[in-house]
Model the fold of this input.
Amino acid sequence: MRGMHGPVLSESLSRNDRKRELFGADTYFQESLDQLAELTTDPEDFAYRHGLLLLKPDAVVSRQLLTTVDWLARSGFTVVAATKAPLTPTVVRSLWYFQWNLATAYRRRIADLFTMTVPALLLVIRKDGTDRPVSTLLTELKGPTDPDRRRPGELRYELGKFSFLLNLVHTADEPADVIRELGVHLDYATRGEVLREALAGVDNSARARALAEKLYAAAPARDLSFEPAAERLRAQAGRVTGPAQGELQTSLAVPGDEGLRALLRTVWRHGLALDPWDVTVVGSTVFPMKDKTFEPVIAAVTAADWQPAAAGR
Done:
């Protein structure tokens, strides 16, 4: 079946009609699907049987990579492939292209700042014996973005409560997203290596652990708690001299979040290079992260959309 812009995906890849049409014309999806078809006779089955978990730079510096690998094992998931995945502003916008219109200017600025501090860790996950797509099950068990809505047993609950933006992990929502996000993150050669590892089906958690240790060695551990970060940021700003000094001193005299917002606006206006993690922690807490005047280009798919009776597998 073809839509206005290209082929429409089957329901075994997505339960969202708009996604099924838009992804059919998406370059990242097309290139990844074509390469997957070179390696297996049933790319859709691969996408159905595997999930994708991205452990972002905040998971690296908060030392939650190994915690995540342990949680996956306890939850019955197997890591079948692992690789480092650098995040650039282009990758971030490509990954969340269909939802990024909801991001405020503050969120985009802060995301660009912290995602480039250290590479992320990308894991391909398998779980046998489930009657739903592995990606959908993993997304459900990951827990919501909102820290106040997380429940015990969910991955994000175990990783710690920071802020809306600092949620440490991301998962591909549906089989179609597994294919597309492999296209976003990896070039042809690296993607081929990862896909061959995943298709072999061997437990690669040891490789994931080894990569985690390398990422830890590349980035010092950080405390992502708000109050300590705010105090450090105020101290850094208080030591700044030059054209911005007067404005910073004025903002430091204002208490609470209002003063911190004024401080960060001054920092950005003058191009000051304060500690990126303190700026991230404070900025993602005191500024709005979501523009509620917009709707996402593609609405989120819920677990109810993939009930066994509807899945057809």
